[in-house]
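WP5 quarterly update. Target: Peroxidase. Source organism: Arabis alpina. Length: 327 aa.
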Amino acid sequence: MASKFASYGQNYTSLLHLFLLLSSVLTSSSDLSFNFYAGSCPVAEFLVRNTVRTAFSSDPTIPGKLLRLLFHDCFVQGCDASVLIQGNNTERSDPGNTSLGGFSVIERAKNAVEIFCPATVSCADIVVLAARDAVEASGGPVVEIPTGRRDGRVSVAADVRPNIIDTDFSLDKMIESFSSKGLSIQDLVVLSGAHTIGDSHCNAFDGRFKRDSKGNFELIDASLDNSYAETLMNKCSSSTSLTVSNDPETSSRFDNQYYKNLEERKGLFQTDSALMEDNRTRKIVEDLASDEESFFERWRESFVKLSMVGVKVGEDGEIRRSCSSVN
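Structure tokens (predicted):
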């Protein structure tokens, strides 16, 4: 009985902490709120969740794609769905975004919502909700998300490269990038846990290897486990356009295995390995590797903070009729 009360107390404290965090965030973005669509479109979140789960049932790579789509949206122009806009010189056309996926899922969710609630639910909210639901569908934590974001009207390819994280960034460059979005070092380590699901093309990490005179790969990154490196080199030897799982152990499940992989020097990207090689982040990695519930609790907090980066409200944006173009 005592252990049950102790567990209840810990959960209560975590929920209280999350509530206080969200309260402070929402104070500065008063037009966002929980159940924002309760009166105008009460089926909105159900429709998005159902669309994500249906897509996931036929394509297990969808959760990773939706989660990556959110990161690439929020880090450029804020969480305003500007990455969805099609056209020449838009964010979506930039080489840094050409490997993104999940667009069709967002469009299907938007189409479903438009049938019941035309011109009411923003694409920006749908992108955030879809990423949230993708994590939950993969076995991750349930996250309550404030909604009410407006869609951006500007999408410029030149804004992409200065804002997204490249897979060969140093820890200092990652910290600088996250800090510019109002995210902490802890947020950086926790949100990197998104790599517990999803796939990546070989050319995203081939800088960790070099070709010898016979055209075979050789490992040049000492931070990578030799046997894991051998597996990657064999997989990618024929073509750098092939894909591998971000997490070699539990690739389709959102869990804390990513951090266990880092402890075993099996981080796919240089940016992953960097987290284990620096005193500023190593202890956080070790804590998350040893306690999945702690990872889930911190994920809830960091994910909400990510979803609030550069949000547009009121007259700052619009509600797009189609997510791929401005009104």
